[in-house]
Amino acid sequence: MKAKKFSRIFLWCGIAAFLFAVGFVWYALNHPEHGTPFGLSLAGTWILYGTYLFGTVLLFALGVVFRKKERLR
């Protein structure tokens, strides 16, 4: 039961993170005059984006792992 609950939570959080990223990219492409709010350098911005991408992929992967774990029971 818990594996099914965790798989749903991780999958929905992954979907929400993906939709947020799509919305952010859409906004960024339509408003190039805005910069980073924290004054990050280009390398810092790429590190931030990479960390976000890694976290989003990790949420989807954990959702799949817990779903498979629940199916084995």
Give an overview of the whole structure.
The chain has 73 residues and is an all-alpha fold. It is 82% helix and 0% strand. It is built from 2 helices and no strands. Helix 1 (2-30) runs antiparallel to helix 2. The longest helix has 31 residues, at 42-72.
Q: Tell me the fraction of residues in β-strands, as a range.
A: under 5%
Number of strands: 0
Element-level helix/strand string:
HH
Structural class, by secondary structure, is mainly alpha
Give average pLDDT, whole number.
86
Our measurement of the CA-to-CA distance between the termini, rounded to an integer number of angstroms, reads 10 Å
- How many individual helices? 2
Q: Rg, please?
A: 16 Å
Overall geometry comes to elongated
How does the major sheet shape up?
none
- Unreliable sequence segments: none
Descriptors for this entry?
single chain, 73 residues, mainly alpha, 2 helices, elongated
Secondary-structure blueprint of this entry?
Blueprint: H1 2-30, H2 42-72
Helix pairs in contact: 1-2
Short note summarizing the structure:
With 73 residues, the chain is mainly alpha-helical. The protein is built from 2 helices and no strands. Helix 1 packs antiparallel against helix 2.
